Amino acid sequence: MAEPGPAIETGPIGTDFASEVLRCIARLPGEGQVTASLSLCFGLSAWMKRFGLGLDETVNTILNLRTALLSVSGLDAASEPVPLRVADRVMFVLNLAVYLDGLLGRAARVLGVSPGAAADAAVELLRSS
């Protein structure tokens, strides 16, 4: 995972980063495959570097995406699993991304749309907030 430092390319932090992460997760192979995917690890590292984000900002972004997905899908936040925080911050970010993949799939099923469409709805909600 990328640590904070000079970004190769800079861009607005927030919804642009969230959009890239969620849309890429939506394009990864079917449910359950993301845990074994090096694409996720490399992708997160590249996005963090591109947007100049550290681990804490990445965690906050993923948790904001969780809130947005719960909101657009109408899934019950009280019955939705809460991501377990672990001491290793890099592992925590990866675990959050894997969790987000599962949540994106659940949200898409509830909405009756593709994961990409569910991702778009969540990002649009973030942009309008």
Runs in which pLDDT lies below 50 for 5 or more consecutive residues are 1-13
User: What is the strand tally?
Assistant: 0
What's the rounded overall pLDDT mean?
81
Number of helices: 5
Distance between the termini: 28 Å
Strand content: under 5%
Return the structural class: mainly alpha
Shape summary: globular
Radius of gyration: 14 Å
Question: Helix content range of the residues, please?
Answer: 55-70%
Largest sheet: none
Instruction: Give the domain tally.
Output: 1
Q: What is the helix/strand order?
A: HHHHH
Name the descriptors.
single chain, 64% helix, 5 helices, 129 residues
Q: What can you tell me about this protein's structure?
A:
This protein has 129 residues and is mostly helical. It has one domain. 64% of the residues lie in helices and 0% in strands. The radius of gyration is 14 Å and the shape is globular. The termini are far apart.
Could you provide a short overview of the structure?
This protein has 5 helices and no strands. It has 129 residues and is an all-alpha fold.
Topology:
Elements: H1 15-27, H2 38-51, H3 55-73, H4 89-111, H5 115-128
